[in-house]
């Protein structure tokens, strides 16, 4: 009789435990870019690992500050509650653990098989994981190129080549202002062709649109506590082209007979360029916004004249 009573008690205990477990809700990552498992409930805390989209996890504790304490693949940390939702298709956390365990077993088997393949496959997997994590956190390391529209000085196209070590090449090309350069008589006579003032008399000019080309090398630093936001600095060269039509009188003989003429020339300015700016990389969307200020120090043809410049824009990254 005692043995039967003990058996009934054990049976009821396990039935009650099963009902308790089944009453708990299972959770999964809803963000398409995955979620960062952090050591503490803040975006500034160190990332333990990146949980892929749709992965099952166990919620240990819900905080009122927008963070869940969770367990994933034997690791415990914090995930933003906005990236997690209840898994309506699976309500048993033990099944969640089992699925994660099976996923781990499959991954281990895959890794075991991959170890017999060429070593570059594991390197590709690591690079792919790093790229996914970088895109989720809004890092420029996730992309190789960016192209977009720049407003300011110059107004035109901006192209950026991202490097893996938080550096980049930037090229801006577009229309620019003339910075107050007056094509007066002194500028006319500086050309060797017109330096004989007895034969040439300056009459006027018509300037065209100025085109500017900036080529820079940049260093980027992420801003702590602001995901996706970084500041950058760097330098390079800038060259500017302005077409000009000169009007003048030409005295073609000693009798001072003259004729009216008009020539086209191109004024070229070349100098150094220093820049400081901010860039914001959006999460899960390949767009970035930037804002910068720079100084252009002209070397040719007005040495050491300094012009302040700046601009803002948007890029599509890929």
TrEMBL record:
Chain intervals with Low complexity compositional bias: 110-139
Segments forming domain SH3b: 24-88
The SH3 domain, residue ranges: 18-89
Annotated stretches, region: Disordered: 84-139
Signal peptide (residue range): 1-23
Keyword Signal: yes
Gene3D superfamilies the record matches: SH3 Domains
Pfam family, one: SH3_3
Compositionally biased region (Polar residues): 84-109
TM segment ranges: none
Keywords linked to the UniProt accession: SH3 domain, Signal
Keyword Amino-acid biosynthesis assigned: no
Name the UniProt record assigns to this protein: SH3 domain-containing protein
Source species of the chain: Rhodocytophaga aerolata
